[in-house]
């Protein structure tokens, strides 16, 4: 079981993105994430105690402003196809949640939503075909602590705890 913090896109954004992804070519070796598992990763904690991590997150996220964000543009990490996340407050929320901290190799925080994983390089046509995708803007009213468990049927995700974000104007 691995733990991470995330923001969940609203239903309208998930439906819009599912429609866009549904029109992409199905290429051998590409394992697409299920829409119900889509999330914007804030920080990854790895194998950790859920109760302790939730206690660590509570004071860091308390009072954090709710970011106004959108999904747009596509890119790749090693064997990962993702959509970029832009907007006011998402980087600050990621930093508050511990992005760039120990456990993720000290990489700079890049908000993203993973769409697919591959065994080899991501086919270059996929990020090109998604380059123009832009979701509606939404306000993320909460961050969540999630756990992921790999099994025979793929990775399963579950929300461990929800952290409301401040709706006060920025």
TrEMBL record:
Xref: SUPFAM superfamilies: LigT-like (SSF55144)
Active-site residues per Swiss-Prot or TrEMBL entry: 39, 112
Chain positions of motif HXTX 2: 112-115
InterPro entries (alphabetical): Cyclic_Pdiesterase, Phosphoesterase_HXTX, RNA_CPDase
EC number(s) stated in the UniProt entry for this protein: 3.1.4.58
EC class: hydrolase
Motif (HXTX 1): 39-42
Function statement: Hydrolyzes RNA 2',3'-cyclic phosphodiester to an RNA 2'-phosphomonoester.
Protein's recorded name: RNA 2',3'-cyclic phosphodiesterase
Organism: Amycolatopsis viridis
Lineage, top ranks: Bacteria, Bacillati, Actinomycetota, Actinomycetes, Pseudonocardiales
């Amino acid at each position: 079981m691995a733990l991470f913090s995330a923001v969940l896109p609203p239903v309208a954004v998930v439906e819009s993105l599912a429609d866009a992804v549904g029109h992409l070519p199905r290429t051998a070796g590409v394992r697409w994430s299920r829409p119900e598992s889509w999330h914007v990763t804030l920080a990854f904690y790895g194998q950790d105690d859920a109760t302790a991590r939730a206690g660590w997150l509570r004071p860091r996220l308390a009072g954090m402003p709710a970011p106004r964000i959108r999904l747009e543009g596509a890119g790749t990490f090693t064997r990962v196809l993702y959509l970029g996340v832009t907007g006011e407050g998402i980087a600050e929320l990621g930093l508050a949640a511990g992005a760039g901290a120990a456990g993720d190799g000290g990489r700079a925080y890049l908000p993203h939503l993973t769409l697919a994983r591959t065994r080899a390089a991501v086919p270059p046509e996929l990020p090109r075909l998604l380059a123009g995708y832009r979701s509606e803007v939404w306000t993320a009213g909460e961050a969540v602590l999630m756990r992921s468990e790999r099994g025979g049927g793929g990775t399963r995700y579950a929300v461990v705890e929800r952290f409301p974000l401040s709706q006060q104007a920025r």
